[in-house]
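Please decode residue identities from the backbone states below.
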């Protein structure tokens, strides 16, 4: 028989059964101790761990270890993590990961994440987390100041560059009223090397029917300003409506920086929104070498950057800044009566009203803590070093017979290939890439440039120094010699047997 509600003893049973959610002091010590020991060990082994490991099982034990009613000891969980996650694939924290656009992994950020998660402050709404919102604001203001954006600009920390681009594009769409039948006559200008997430963002924003003009690039893979101007004039003559220019401060493909100032002047003369895709390169503005290449950014309408790339943060932090905060606000605002005071707080308007997210990870702390504790000077030096290392590699490679290099690097990406004395050069460079991947000490990626299979070296990780570039040069020589010695039928497996590349490589990834 059911009791009349006075018997609540089962609550004690539930409380007891749920106690695992709140570790006691001794359990906390164990959790912290073992997890920190794991992290410390991981860091200490990083210097010698391979940059890339391809393993047959691809961590399948993880799938085969089900979620169960009873937990497992932290040691066992950490072992699963080590064996099935942290030891396979690309080691994105490695000094020798030089493919695509490498990431970072500042340990200060990891500690910031820990603190953010433990305190679980609400970073989306000002009154709920004034300190958390203020911290994000302060970082956005700092970034805005790097590019000469005014106080009326605004932005937020996103999960990455892709979502940052999406928000900027949605803001541009709203300001220019691109909807309905206007879409098909509203033209977007970009290049073949514009990151593919821009096309994806346009599609998500309902703008896939906008005509896209892939503006011609010059011999250095930078958007040609004369070609842009011509394309805009032609479209205008045809009765179309040019509305969006997407320029890049460092393409993923070749690292080329578009002539931002010139392009921006053309865009503003014709009333286009100028969006700068700076996921990879925008933070190079912090160093002298970067400033020489990145000018005219102040005249744009929006900029994105990826702190998880060139500010060396761990993955999960991008940023967008729009010159007029109101444009971002109008594009993302969602109304509820209880938000009526929001306009008065415009100075400190929180990301909930500027971005697609509401509740979110308190990302600001992982960015603020390293900037505050380490200080900017080290960031400037590291960025400067990355550019210098790319130039060093570019120069050294030219002294190695048989190697052909791409343009002098605008920032920190170098493209190159080996031209074999005979045989198919594309096949040779594919095999060279495969041998490097199989070796695993360094990781380089490849791309197609004007149908030529080309290798890329991207120096972005803060841990990458001259030794690692020298090692890369040595490995390149070693592998080329191996390939030249081997008869064709003894060379490494053909590209399509390479699981990793098939799954994730495109020339704009
Ligand atoms: C990495 C990258 C992106 C995509 O950013 P995510 O942070 O991966 O979403 C966009 N553009 C460029 C140039 C990039 O390097």
């Amino acid at each position: 028989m059911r009791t009349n509600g006075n018997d609540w003893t089962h609550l004690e049973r539930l409380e007891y059964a749920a106690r695992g959610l709140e570790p006691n002091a001794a359990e906390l010590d164990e959790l912290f101790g073992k997890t920190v020991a794991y992290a410390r060990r991981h860091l200490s082994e990083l210097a010698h761990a391979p940059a890339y490991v391809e393993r047959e099982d691809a961590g399948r034990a993880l799938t085969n270890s089900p979620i169960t009613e009873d937990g497992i000891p932290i040691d066992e969980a950490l072992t699963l993590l080590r064996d099935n996650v942290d030891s396979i694939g690309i080691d994105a924290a490695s000094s020798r990961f030089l493919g695509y656009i490498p990431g970072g992994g500042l340990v200060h950020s990891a500690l910031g994440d820990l603190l953010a998660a433990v305190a679980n402050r609400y970073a989306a709404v000002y009154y709920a987390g004034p300190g958390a919102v203020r911290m994000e604001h302060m970082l956005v203001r700092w970034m805005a100041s790097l590019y000469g954006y005014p106080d009326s600009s605004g932005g937020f920390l996103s999960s990455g560059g892709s979502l940052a681009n999406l928000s900027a594009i949605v803001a541009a769409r709203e300001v220019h009223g691109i909807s309905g039948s206007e879409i098909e006559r509203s033209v977007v200008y970009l290049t073949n090397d514009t990151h593919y997430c821009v096309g994806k963002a346009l599609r998500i924003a309902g703008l896939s029917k906008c005509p896209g003009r892939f503006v011609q690039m010059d011999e250095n893979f930078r958007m040609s300003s004369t070609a842009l101007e011509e394309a805009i004039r032609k479209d205008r003559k045809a009765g179309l409506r040019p509305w969006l220019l997407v320029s890049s401060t460092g393409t993923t493909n070749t690292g080329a920086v578009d002539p931002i100032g010139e392009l921006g002047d053309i865009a503003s003369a014709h009333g286009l929104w100028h969006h700068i895709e700076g996921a990879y390169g925008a933070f190079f503005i912090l160093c002298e070498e970067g400033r020489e290449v990145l000018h005219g950014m102040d005249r744009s309408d929006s900029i994105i950057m990826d702190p998880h790339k060139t500010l060396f943060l761990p993955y999960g932090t991008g940023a967008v800044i729009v010159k007029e905060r109101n444009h971002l606000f109008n594009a993302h605002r969602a109304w509820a009566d209880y938000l009526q005071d929001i306009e008065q707080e415009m100075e400190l308007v929180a990301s909930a009203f500027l971005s697609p997210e509401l509740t979110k990870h308190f990302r600001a702390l992982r960015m603020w803590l390293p900037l505050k504790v380490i200080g900017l000077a080290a960031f400037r030096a590291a960025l400067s070093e990355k550019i210098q290392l790319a130039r060093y590699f570019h120069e050294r490679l030219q002294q190695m017979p048989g190697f052909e290099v791409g343009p002098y690097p605008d920032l920190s990406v170098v493209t190159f290939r080996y031209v074999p004395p005979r045989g198919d050069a594309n096949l040779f460079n594919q095999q060279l890439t495969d041998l490097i991947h199989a070796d695993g000490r360094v990781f380089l990626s490849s791309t197609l440039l004007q149908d030529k299979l080309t290798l890329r070296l991207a120096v972005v990780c803060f841990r990458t120094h001259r030794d690692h570039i020298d090692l890369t040069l040595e490995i390149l020589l070693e592998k080329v010699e191996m390939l030249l010695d081997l008869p064709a039928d003894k060379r490494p497996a053909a590209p399509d047997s390479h699981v990793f590349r098939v799954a994730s490589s495109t020339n704009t990834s």
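Observation: DSSP finds 18 helices and 13 strands in the chain.
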